[in-house]
Design a protein that fits this description.
heterodimer, A: alpha/beta, Rossmann fold, 11 helices, 33 strands, 32% strand, elongated, B: alpha/beta
Amino acid sequence: MRFLALPAGTAMLLLAGVAALVVGLYLLRPLPRRLVISSGLIWRRVLKERKRKPERLRWWLSLLLALALALSIAAALTRPEIAAVGGHAQEVVVVVDDSATMGARSPDGRTRLERALERAHATIEAGGAGSRFLVADTMRQVSAPRFQEKRAALTTLERIKPGNDGQPRFPDVALPRSAEAGGQALFITDGVAGVEPSREFQTISVFQPVDNVGIVAFDVRPVPGNPRRYEAFVEVLNASSGNKQIELRVAGTGAKAITKTLQLAGRSAANEVLEVSAFDSGPLRATIDSDYDGFAPDDTAFAFLPAKHVVRVGLITRGNQQLQRTLELLPRVQLTMLSPERASAVRGLDAAVFDRYAPPAAPRLPALLIRPPRTNWLPRQVGEVADIGIERWDRAHPLLRHLNLRDITVESAAVLKLNTARSDEERVHVLAVGPRDQPMMLATEAGVRWIELAFALEQSSFPQQTSFPMFLANSIEWLTNESVALSRNLGTVSVPLAHGKVVGLEGREVKAQWGHDATLFEVPQPGFFIVSSGDERLRVAVNLLDPHISALNESPLPPQTQDRERARPSARIAIDPWMLLLLIAVGLLTIEWLTYNRRVTI
Amino acid sequence: MLLTESFLRQLELLTLVPRGRAHGQLKGMHRSRRTGAGMVFADYRPYSEGDDIRNIDWGIYLRMDRLILRLFEEEADLPVYIFLDTSVSMDHGEPPKLDYAKRVASALAYVALLNHDRVNLVTYADGLREMLPTRRGKNQAPQVFNFLERMQAKGRTSLFAALRRYFGAPRTRGMVVLVSDFLDPDGTEAALTVLRRFRHDVVLLHVMSPQERDPQLPEEVVLVDAEEGTSSELEITPALLAAYRETFEKHAGEVEAYCRKYGWGYVRALTEVPFEDLVLKGLREEGLLR
């Protein structure tokens, strides 16, 4: 027998102490008052007629009852583990994979997650009295997993839903104390997400092949060389084992729609490029339809078709061929070359790019300033640093989305000193920093927008990076405030807009939460949303678009068998021994009360 | 002082009433079976030589010319034997039963002395303890009172032993007054049978304290028998107390029934009742005093 509340030695000592105390109290019990009466003659006659029980027997009976009562309570305090009653107390760790593929629905109508939760539920229910359970998941829906009692663990299980928010990973959880004590560590998964549990965990498969056809890519881009033409790129994956006939439909905001029927072999993909220039500017919805599909979130995707007009950009430089060529290659950009001397005379531009030059006063049009010289209206330059890189950057900002700046090396950069009060006032954001948090890229939205790079292009490897043209394209879009839709994954969506109001395509407002300069809202299914705050508006296309998720039959685990192993309860009576002991104590107390009142005990 | 002056004056009006004729040898105030000098006419008989000529009925002689002697009931004294139980059991109760019994015995003895009865005082416990030789006349009252007053409770009860020992010697038939709680471990009936054989006129004064009749005891108690020294641990319940009261009443009833069966007097002397009331009312109602 084990004791859960105390070490065995201490528990035995406690029980022995309680027994000794009870016996001692009985032995030291004060004698009844002695009363001298004139004669015992009458009493003797009374007692003879009433046939009294022997006093000693009553004393022993009373002592035994008191001992049983006290030991029951003391034993309950030690929380003993009695296998026949409450089963073995053990520590069980259950990690449930709740990544997106666990939402795949089998032909029997149940999802993989439902089966996983059912198995976890059975495992916890089978745990013996006094067992402790730790429930965790791969999508971090269970915050701060810890060992809990059975009821709390079951409640935690109920909170787990299929998660789309972020990449699944195996949680860092405590392990059961020891396998000898009946500890279990289970990882219940379909294996598709490729989450590797630590070696102490036993992996239980809930994988079952499911037919699925999904959209794994959907984007709208202008045709290079003709910024007024747009094409929608759609990639459809047939993750099923057999052939599928798929109806692909792309629809815009008006009545226009394109429908196409595809024949796809099992485990193959098809890329479709559709001309959408005729569509009105606005959100596009791509949907697929097939005879049976076990996973709905990848059947729909959204994109945004931007306005199709030319942006006039002026490049003020004393000569920078690479920058000029890159700008000219950007779709929709109509470039005008200017020397710094003629910069003030130019009219009719939508945005300007200043290369190693800055006008003496803040320009009246949005501007990208690349390594500008010292000037009063820009952040102060207090020196130069050499041979640095970019350490961190704001991936959520529209300027830097999809960009990787890690490999950029900078030979020389200006050290920018921000006036904190003024920075707040002008809403200057530091978008990228070098070593010791030195600002390398700044942007402001106060009044006319501008962007400042602290280094010159020819003194860095930035122009040679693939992210450079994207940075320029993003900069032009951001400066002209013609941003395309933000692209987000399912789950918790965060957009860089403070106190935003979120409205779906159907005009229904979505409940949102506000963080620091951001609006957050939950999106379980693909959708298109408009987040607005004051005059600012952001469009957000929320899609799954993940071929690893849509390929939800790519699991190394064997399919779950029909006669799946059930967790066996470890005790016939599902009651904690300590509770049973307390019930016994209550019963003994009742017996004691009854026997005392009937003078069976003393 | 056992009795107050005022109470003594009240007692002077009373006399003991035997249930039969007195068998005293001396001149007394009770009717006896003997004829002789007396005031109450009893019978006629022919005159014999030597008879007192003062008792010849001269009227008959003149009418019938025969000497007929008038006989009168002779008034004799009454031997009174007062047995006082001085066992330890009599020392209990509030007031102590012995004190109560002493006062009752004093009152009876005083009344007897006033009426020129021969008073014999006997104290007993597990046998005879002390005896006051026969006293007669009012002037013997102080000795009687002193005798009773100095009596202390001692020993266990054995009425049978005491009576057998006392009446083992020749005693004139008379009135036997037993003042006791009758808590005799050997039983009362055997002792009373001794009295019945001698055909005494018997009156039992059963002294009871309220503590005996209706004891108030704690829930758990060890009861120690004052006479035997034995103890028994009890858990007192209402049912047990009820059983005790019933048994006590049964015991008293048995003693009373025995007395009634043989035409004896039986009076319950409850110590919570003022003993004056017992003497002036209780004993008179029972017919022991008039």
